[in-house]
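Structure request: DUF7730 domain-containing protein, Zasmidium cellare ATCC 36951.
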Amino acid sequence: MASGRLLMTMCDAAEKSRLVSSDTAALANAATTPAKTGASVKKDPDSPSSSYLYNLAMVDLGIWGDLALRTWVNINPSTQWANRQIEPYRGLPFGTYLHSARPRRQRTLTGPLDPAQESLWHRVQVLSSLESEQRTDEQLDCAFLAKLPYDVRLIIYDMVLGGNTLHLEAANPKSRILHSVCRHPERIDNPGVHIDCSYHSAVQATSIPREDCRDATGFLPLLVTCRKIYSEAIGSLYNGNTFEFTQNFAAFTFLKYMLPPQRLQSIRHLRLHLRIPRHPNLNTRALRDWQDLWTFFGDEMTGLQSLYLQLQMLQPMEAHIESTSDDEAEDWIRPMVLMAVDARQKRGCKVELETRKVRHEPSKIFQQTTMQYPNASTDEVLSLTCTALHQRIRLSLG
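Returned structure:
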């Protein structure tokens, strides 16, 4: 009953918001009429979507609206039926991860020892802090650390920890994420050859390769040698390898929940097979999640030098794209173009999209459009780029 009252309260708030805001009212009216893009949301008078659920779905209340939809499913006798009813109003699968706060770390990250940490003022700050101090020692008795220059040590770390393509996957959203080193990096675009890579992830250890475990990656021993080596070498693990994900939940659990921001910014190369069950323009939640995805890539993964996304679209989304006019698709194409162009200009990051084995490079399309229309404004070039990119995606679907 408490869940029911909570849902009714949030739905009433959504109804009041719809009546007060003319923009929201226009959005609700537009949802009852088939859009020019071919998407339509039918209003069934015999279903809950004709009253509270419909009003709630048409008003994006952020996390509260998502909570209300989940609550409505949970209090229904038939979960399967309820899920079918709210399907047109759901966001995208990765939205929950993007909008969740990172878990608080139990201790701060270990960093290189700063000479200033030996000062009296620093010691007073440590004593007044609620967190314990994380320190590294110079390890002067170690010939590797005392005699080899720091630049030479970095080269060694890169040779030991870097230069690999890592497949990361999990059995389900709650299970442990396992990694395996790609055995065929030269054929990374052919998923069929990576079956043996996945097999070895179940038996592969992170210890050094030895007689009884020749397939060990060797990542762990060097990193756990001592705190100073860890602080110097951990960057090579993230900036020296390519990370590939084939599951949404594994990718965003790793990127949003497991990695702290400092490590996330160290990733240079990311490959993601992105499953998209519904079109971003289907409703406001899906569009919000889609825009936030590209904001995440652009603002939080600031170290990226290459980003490859294979868009795995279900049939309803493909049908939506094919029925949409190219010059009316800017709402969901523009975030991709803006991120790709900005990343290319700031740090030379190459962003590639793939649909049906056809690759698209938004920044290159932007450059070509700029040369084709030299007198056009930046906003006009962006609009023309969005039109061209949508046309290429639509044609790739056959």
